[in-house]
Amino acid sequence: MQHRKALYLSIVILLTLIFPLLFIIILSRSFKYISKTENIPNKKYHIIVTGETQNSNFLNKVFEGALKEAESYDAVVELNIPSSKADDNSLSSLFEYASFVNADGIIAYIDEDSDAVQAPKKSDSGDIPVITVGFYNQNIPQISFIGNNYSESGRILARTAVEYWKSGYDIFIVNSAGKNPNYSNLMNTLSVALKTARLFPETFEGTFTENQDAVSRRLLHENIVPAVIISLTEDDSISISQLASDPDYNQDNIIISFGENETISTYFEKGIISAVLSVDQENAGSRAVRELFNYKRNRFANNYVYAGIQLKKGRTE
To answer: What values do phi and psi take at 106, rounded to 5?
Structure first.
């Protein structure tokens, strides 16, 4: 009997020691878990900035602007860009990812040739609002587009061309934007401003391929005088810049690009493109977040929002 009591007493003492020890172990593990996860943002809203690899420079700036603005809205912003061109996905796939993570909003870069897509859905089947930057495409289910003020852009392009122009230079405008009404507005203000400065440019309308012989002849083969070349699309800016590798190219030529992407940035850094006019990308990100939350609050967003303009200038000699 004495032996049995001693055994029970030993078990009670052992359990008394084990339970607190287990509690301490569990509690310490819980604190370790909290310390590892305390830096993960616990935000109410999740916004995704997305697009293809070739637009990553632009999107990184948009992301920076969106990130700063999101602080006021209890929102976390995620940048989702494929790591390389080989990994590029369609716009539909990028939107599907937003649906998968149940995002509250998307800021997407749209290219000129982007295909039409369906509105992305949340898990409760509600639409995820999309705000676009880059190029306006009426086939994209967007609540708002953050873009350029084309009239103001035309005036700034003209002022920049006048600044670079010297006596004896030719002046060209290369425009393959077709009948886009925004570009018609741009061309009108650009032409009027140049004429006011007594500069009368030769204008090449249509695709660069259609004008390649004429443009090449003026910049390479005739090679009479240098020129100030105003290019109104990113593709044209790249095609004209590629002529700089020709031994007959006059290195005094001045290229002014309306629009910027990775390739144009490279040509600008090399000094082949002298000036770049584009949307203020950080402000585009900030305005996109603001429009997104206006829409969430009021079920209304401005269809077209001017983001502001940035001008980068390189060599003047």
So the answer is: -130, 135
DSSP per-residue codes, 137-168: -TTS--SEEEE--HHHHHHHHHHHHHHH--TT
Strand order in the sheet with 45-50: 75-80, 45-50, 105-110, 130-134, 144-147, 304-306
CB of 227 within 8 A of CB of 253? Answer: yes
CA distances from 50 to 46, 109, 273 (A): 13, 7, 27
The candidate with the shortest Cα–Cα distance to 126, out of 102, 144, 142, is 102
Distance separating alpha carbons of residues 212 and 117, to the nearest angstrom:
34
Q: Copy the structure tokens of residue 153.
A: 């852009």
Phi/psi for 182 (5° steps) reads: -65, -40
Residue 310 CA: distances (Å) to CA of 85, 177, 275, 278, 296: 27, 21, 11, 6, 29
Side chain identity at residue 91, one-letter code:
L
- Confirm whether pTM is higher than 0.85: no
Q: Which residue did the predictor score with more confidence, 8 or 150?
A: 150
pLDDT at 229: 94
8 A C-beta contact, residue 55 and residue 82: no
For residue 49, CA distances in Å to 161, 180, 241, 308, 314 come to 34, 26, 30, 19, 30
Pairwise CA distance, residues 148 & 307, whole Å: 6
Cα radius of gyration rounded to whole Å, the chain: 29
CA distance 135 to 169: 32
Reduced to 3 states, what is the DSSP secondary structure of residue 200? coil
What whole-number distance in Å separates Cα of residue 224 and Cα of residue 221? 8
Confidence of residue 53 (pLDDT cuts 50, 70, 90): confident
Q: Report which of residues 179 and 185 the model is more confident about.
A: 185
